[in-house]
Amino acid sequence: MTKNFLSPIAREILIGPKSDTTFFEVFHYPFDKNPELGHLFVVAQVLTDDEALSYVPNLLASFLKREYFETAGDDPDPQTQFERALKKANELTFDLAENNNVKLNMAITVLAGDKLMTSRVGRAKLLLAREGNTTDVFSNVDLFGKTTTGEREFSNIISGKIQESDKLLFFIPNRRLSARENSLKASLVKMGQEEFFEYIKNLNQPEEDATKSPLTCCAIHINLSKEEKEIIPAPDQPQVLLTKEEKKEPPTIMDLATPNPAEISRIPKKDLFKKLGASLARTMPFSTKKLRIPGKRTLMGLGILIVIIVFFSVRGLISSQQKKADLKKATAKIEEIVKLSESEIALGNNKKAREYLGQALTAAFGINDGEEKINLINSVQEKVVATEFFDSKKPELIAELPEPISEGLTLSNEDGTFMLGLDGLIKKLDSTSQKFNDLLKINLENPIKISAIYDKLLYFYDGQKLFWKVSPAQKTISSLTITSNEIPRDMRFYQENVYILTSTISKVSDVTKGQTQQQKWLKNEGEFDAVSFTVDQNIFVLTKDGRLLRYFKGDKIDDRPVDFSYSNNSVLYPIGADFILVDREQKKARLMNSTGILQRTWDLSDTGEILNTYFDPLTKNIYILSKEKLWKLTIEI
């Protein structure tokens, strides 16, 4: 049996930096088993002073997905499931709002068949473009109806019919987007999905005032088209009897939710006074008849003493109860984050799983209780090691610097290992004494920004004008003038040519023969904001938003997501058909293949603060320069 469905083509739009207090995500969950349930979309933003709560958007989205899809029976009704999911979600959002300093902006939309259902808490917008007009669904419900489920947090459910060729934009508004709302609506009507995405990206470009903060956009763009699907009835399943142990369900998010501190039982002070008095009376070694009545001052002092004892006893008990409740709450959060990471691993989303585990580890370090804290940290770290594929090999110390430095570069080839300091002095490492000896000095006008080795020669570039060529064997220095309007981020040699990375890629042909003419190499500029790059027959570019791009003769021919997170202070090096990515901020070296998949990780934290790194492809050594020492890690693959 076949049936026509309105199929949404969704484009997630996440642009702009996330801060320490603002976290946002978008989610799209298509149906798994029941086409009648359609597609679930979630746009979420969390404002909080607690960085450990950055997991909240993922937690709520995962919870809503489970409550909407996984609790449905054989003949599901989308309206019933949506109302049920909202009601359950409100229990969770209410607890989050009460127990944490959290402000939530979130909207949920279901597209099932030709029906749209949506609801929100806080600020969210849903724009519908149809027949040349745009409607703000939450503000104008002429095309839609309202129902209520009696929930405490989410707004009433808005529902109505959708049509083929409708376009939807589902987003969290902010001041800069609101100022462009008319342009946003007009662009939604007239532009295709990719064109609209480029329009949003271009809004983020610097305007007349370069000091303006970057635009942030958390949105989902949806195009609707008809699709015919074959509905295959599920075969009858044989009944399987389970034992009591097998029937036991794992704890759910709601099972793990901790109570509001206001619900924690308070200790009745009157009862405490009565019990304390009775206890004192039982311990008296004499009867009240023989008791000598003390004076008023004595009685007053005794009363004050009792009040002080009771006060500190009560405060200690309340504090103990609160600590236990806080610990339980923190533990539940960590366990839930770990469960989310395990779900992502099962789905093959290792990058998201590692992000969850990083959040869980941060939360575990924030716990005050010593023993419980250690147990949680150890438990989470075991999972981190497993998902990061850590290699046990550590960097080895090969030299101590004569004096601490604040900045420097290292290079290595078959002639030796070299270091350049801020003063322009090139030193060579003596392999016998493991000390650096002075070799040559460059008369620098500006500090050196990038360096490279090609055909036994050392090259240094100040990124503004002077391009130095040094021959360690002949002890000669020469320079060329290559003017740049931008400070370069990296440079690589290939076949007598040098490629320089800025906001684009430039090429200087035959630079080793003294040529200085610089030309743009990338055909379509503005396609990436790069972290690092590397060159062989192709040019591979690592971007700030987690992608590995491949170019050939200036054209982009591949674009893949990298399945792990890295900082902007990372450097990409080729190693055969794979890559070494050294993250100087996270202090990790990673081996990944050409499709962006993590293969192995090495921990570089023993080296301390990393100033500079260099990878020698001949020896497969990573050289790591810190303020006082030079280290080496040999990669074996």
Q: Say what oligomer this is.
A: single chain
What percentage of the residues does DSSP assign to strands (E)? 35-45%
The major beta sheet can be summarized as:
6 strands, antiparallel
Strand order of the largest sheet: 2-3-4-5-9-8
Structural class: alpha+beta
Quantity of strands, as a count: 36
Low-confidence stretches: 233-293
Question: Could you characterize the architecture of this molecule?
Answer:
With 637 residues, the protein is α+β, with helices and mostly antiparallel strands. Helices cover 27% and strands 35% of the residues. It is built from eleven helices and 36 strands. The strands form eight sheets. The chain has a six-stranded antiparallel sheet with strand order 2-3-4-5-9-8, covered by helices on one side. Strands 1-11-10-6-7 form a five-stranded antiparallel sheet, with helices on one face. A five-stranded mixed sheet has the order 12-33-32-31-30. A hairpin with a 4-residue loop joins β19 and β20. α1 runs antiparallel to α2, α9 packs antiparallel against α10 and α10 packs antiparallel against α11 (370-388). The longest helix is centred in the middle third of the chain and has 51 residues, at 296-346. It is globular, with a radius of gyration of 32 Å. The protein starts with a strand and ends with a strand.
Write the SSE topology:
Blueprint: E1 2-15, E2 22-30, E3 39-48, H1 56-70, H2 78-99, E4 102-112, E5 115-121, E6 125-130, E7 133-136, E8 145-147, E9 157-161, E10 167-171, H3 175-179, H4 181-190, H5 193-203, E11 217-230, H6 244-247, H7 253-256, H8 269-282, H9 296-346, H10 350-365, H11 370-388, E12 390-391, E13 396-400, E14 408-413, E15 416-421, E16 425-430, E17 435-441, E18 450-454, E19 457-461, E20 466-471, E21 476-481, E22 490-494, E23 497-501, E24 505-508, E25 518-520, E26 530-535, E27 539-543, E28 547-552, E29 555-561, E30 570-575, E31 578-583, E32 588-592, E33 598-603, E34 610-616, E35 621-626, E36 629-634
Helix pairs in contact: 1-2, 9-10, 10-11
